[in-house]
Design goal:
about 120 residues; mainly beta; four-stranded antiparallel beta sheet
């Protein structure tokens, strides 16, 4: 079982910046990937960015060039630096972790979510 604790959300004006953090508890199995997803009112949850244990990253097209995901493996923490924020970035942001067992079974874990609101 992995617990994820997010912080860093809030209210910011368009063009501003925020940094989200997510600390993962110790895991019995290797944490393969960490990432951020978001869900706006009335919309489905969507991928924002992910980073693997090998530091490979993946971004949604809508955030490329504005958001940067990073990972501190020593502390099992993932960060999302969000710059040039737009009102359409407003959503609840969820931290995600994927663990993998030695036999290859994968498990998904989610944080409680943190609200990001960008005013125009």
């Amino acid at each position: 079982q992995v617990q994820l604790v997010e912080s860093g959300g809030g209210l910011v004006q368009a063009g501003g910046s925020l940094r989200l953090s997510c600390a993962a508890s110790r895991s019995r199995f290797s944490i393969n990937a960490l990432g951020w997803y978001r869900q706006a009112p009335g919309k489905q949850r969507e991928l924002v960015a992910t980073i693997t244990s090998g530091r490979s990253t993946n971004y949604a097209d809508s955030v490329k060039g504005r958001f940067t995901i990073s990972r501190d493996s020593a502390e099992n923490t993932v960060y999302l630096q969000m710059n040039s924020l737009k009102p359409e970035d407003t959503a609840v942001y969820y931290c995600h972790a994927e663990t993998i067992t030695p036999l290859g079974t994968r498990y998904d874990y989610w944080g409680q979510g943190t609200q990001v609101t960008v005013s125009s």
